[in-house]
Design brief:
Distance between the termini: 42 Å
Strand order of the largest sheet: 3-2-1-4-5-7-6
Helix content: 25-40%
CATH architecture: 3-Layer(aba) Sandwich
Order of helices and strands: HHHEHEHEEHEHHEHHE
CATH superfamily: Vaccinia Virus protein VP39
Shape: globular
Number of strands: 7
Number of helices: 10
Strand content: 15-25%
Length: about 260
């Protein structure tokens, strides 16, 4: 029986978990950015536990256990391999391991209310299948005056990839990514006010093939649509991708962040 999209996402991230940090340069930058924003308001958190959605190998988790040593932390990820790597990564940071609970879990199934003082997530929302419904659940899971802090890949990511496909008259197989304005309108419709930020991160790769290889090596190569390029089309795309003066290629990521206070 064919795997559904969630199973594919989990399988790809699990397979890549042991080498994720070696290739996840952009993701690490995004994690640092999220943590910097958290330091601006972490002292305002009400009483309550902390949840990290899509905890991965621990780039944000390490900061959470340091910042909130007295709070109960729940770290969840869809991929069992990521949870295993996270446990290993956090071992050196935990003086009281009993206050951390790791769970292999789909964040879109969260159904508690008025429970968490903080829900944090770095580059996970773009994988949600029901973004509006899941945002509603996450916001409802916050205690009064609790915070939801998330970052995600925005729909202005990969302009070089999109332009190359247009120039070659090829279908562009970039996954559909959230639009910042639409996401803010969704939150407003749910009755929440949010603050939003956006930054563009340029990442340089020796070749276009190295860029696609990095997607595979970090587990981020799951296609949410059925369209695929043929081998001939892929070769054309790789060979025609614009190069800079050093022969390398540039890939631009849009990292959007939102902060909601319940």
């Amino acid at each position: 029986m064919a795997m559904d999209i969630k199973e594919k996402i989990a399988a790809n991230f699990s397979t890549s978990s042991f080498r994720y940090d070696q290739y996840a340069v952009m993701q690490q930058q995004a994690a640092l950015s999220l943590v910097r924003r958290l330091t601006d308001f972490h002292h305002e958190l009400p009483v309550g536990p902390v949840l990290e959605v899509g905890c991965g190998t621990g780039a944000v988790s390490r900061e959470l256990v340091t910042m909130f040593p007295e709070r109960r932390l729940t770290l969840i990820d869809l991929a069992p391999g990521m949870i295993a790597e996270n446990r290993h990564a956090l071992a050196a940071y935990l003086e009281t391991p009993h206050h951390v609970d790791w769970q292999v879990r789909d964040a879109e199934t969260i159904d508690v209310r008025n429970h968490y003082a903080l829900i944090a997530s770095c580059l996970t929302l773009q994988w949600f299948q029901d973004l509006s419904g899941s945002l509603a659940k996450l916001c409802e899971a916050l205690v009064p005056d609790g915070f939801l802090l998330c970052s995600y890949l925005g729909d202005r990511s990969f302009p070089e990839w999109r332009s190359a496909c247009v120039a070659l008259d090829l279908p562009c197989t970039v996954n559909r990514l959230p639009n910042s304005q639409a996401l803010m309108e969704t939150l407003h419709a749910l009755g929440y006010e949010a603050t939003a930020w956006s930054e563009m991160i340029e990442q340089h790769y020796p070749t276009a093939h190295d860029f696609f290889r990095s997607l595979k090596k970090t587990g981020a190569s799951t296609h949410s649509a059925d369209d695929r390029l043929t081998l001939t089309q892929m070769v054309r795309l790789l060979s025609s991708w614009p190069k800079d003066n050093n022969g390398a290629v540039t890939v631009t990521y849009q990292i959007n962040s939102i902060l909601v206070r319940a």
